[in-house]
Amino acid sequence: IRFDAYAINTILLLFLQRVLLLVASDVDALCACKILQALFQCDHVQYTLVPVSGWQELETAFLEHKDQFKYFVLINCGANVDLLEILQPEEDAFFFVCDSHRPINVVNVYNETQIKLLVKPDDDLDVPAYDDIFRDEDEEEEESEAESDGSEPSDKRRRFEEVFECFYSSFRREILFDYEQYEYHGTSSAMVMFDLAWIMSKDLNDMLWWAIVGLTDQWVQDKITQMKYVTDIGILQRHVSRHNHRNEDEENSLSIDCMRIAFEYDLRLALYQHWSLYESLCNTSYTSANLKLWSVQGQKRLHEFLADMGLPLKQVKQKFNSMDISLKENLREMIEESASKFGMKDLRVQTFSIHFGFKNKFLASDIVYATASLMESIEKEGPETTNFIKALDSLSRGNLDKLHQGLDLAKKQLRAIQQTVASCICTNLVISQGPFLYCSLMEGTPDVKLFSKPVSLCLLSKYLLKSFVCSTKNKRCKLLPLIMAAPMDVEQGTVIMVGIPPETESSDKKNFFGRAFEKAAESTNSRTLHNHFDMSIIELKTEDRSKFLDALISLLS
């Protein structure tokens, strides 16, 4: 559905029903879910929320609830496969799909009865023309009627039809291959949901903040290009101005429970306002990779960098809140100026901050790290859905204690990632396999349990590739993608594997590993599980790993 009058009427129809919400386990999906929940609460819509972390859970949830519901909303899942083929629903079931995964499956695009895709009007889906991939039954009937009218078709005509059918099949295969070859991400689902709220004149400042966090999640996880990020920031900035304009008198009388969003040019340093500046510099991928902090020389450069800014070690190693106010006042300018001398020209980033009352200030990226860490926490507490509910709750401003718990977990996660990156590079664990780089974490590696989770493993892979590109002198290796593997379930003998595109300035963030993994598994009969909504993440039997990798090498060479 593009957001026109017909689309809004169709969506309003949804607001009159009982709805099943199926939500994927990523921060953008959680933010979109919060916006939709707020919209449902406005109109007293009854809904049931079910978190789904993969295709198996999606199918199970659908089977369990299909008799009680006719309307299903899928957030960040369901767009990139033939949904009706997988779920086999009754004809009176309707699916509203808000999913940033691209490319969208062509059957979903052209199904006008049961599947409604929620897409922003300016999103270019690049879908092949209907006539290029589907042959209507009417055409086929006409052809068969023409044949039955006359006598037996001549050999010449039969041969022509066989050749045409063969040509049409290969033409269709080629078009679909080109369309489905690369996986990438479209506009954040939280932004799409906010757009919907805005068009319905029900947008609130809280919803706007969730849309900002959803977009920031795509940026933190490196799912979209810098150009797309800046464009979407511009769109949200206009909404921020509309919702948060105040004159000076009001500014001085802010109530303790008020909320204010502001656009900022801030530092690209993870959690620095809730940590020490030193820890943040050491555990942010951008600074750590550029300064090569895994080496003695890199540590020396860090101290030179701090000296260049005139910041005493005693100050930078204490909590940011406890630093001298005189140092904090011009900190951004000081850091930026010195960063340029040390080859870090992109240390400043466009973002948004939020103020709750007088003293609580968070950057959008703080919320992303905290929420993602809560969602993939490896501390066992009750049923599987506990982490999902905790993460969802941390996005409400009434739950600052959960948010702070998330920030503490996020610091542990970032430290674990940085230590693992350092040990992989220092022990030369990243090896070139020809068409790609490969790194495998062994069982017994510190924090290896954390990296059996998809978001954490993807973050580690991206940090590792950035650092490897900065550390290697081999020019060819700098342009290669990376496949990373970590133990998944030791008892079952499985590994989780993720493929990420090359780390280049001009990278379009398109990922070809999803299709490559499928083909390699097929050709070698490897026991794989393609259960993740991101096709470039798979689970694999440990014994099948070497033949699977060999197939990938020959496929991509």
TrEMBL record:
GO MF terms here are: chromatin binding; DNA replication origin binding; single-stranded DNA binding
The compartments listed are: Nucleus
PANTHER family in UniProt:
CDC45-RELATED PROTEIN, CELL DIVISION CONTROL PROTEIN 45 HOMOLOG
Pfam families, A to Z: CDC45 (PF02724)
Q: What is this protein called?
A: Cell division cycle 45
Query: Which positions carry the signal peptide feature in this UniProt record?
Result: 1-24
Q: Which organism is it from?
A: Anser brachyrhynchus (Pink-footed goose)
Instruction: Give the highest taxon in the source lineage.
Output: Eukaryota
Grouped into one coarse class, the protein's main location is: nucleus
Q: Where is the composition biased (Acidic residues)?
A: 136-152
Instruction: List the GO cellular component terms.
Output: DNA replication preinitiation complex
- The reply to whether Cell cycle figures as a keyword in the UniProt entry is yes
Arranged from A to Z, the UniProt key words for this protein are:
Cell cycle, DNA replication, Nucleus, Signal
- List the GO biological process terms: DNA replication initiation; double-strand break repair via break-induced replication; mitotic DNA replication preinitiation complex assembly
In the record, the note on similarity to other proteins reads: Belongs to the CDC45 family.
Please list where the region (Disordered) is annotated. 136-156
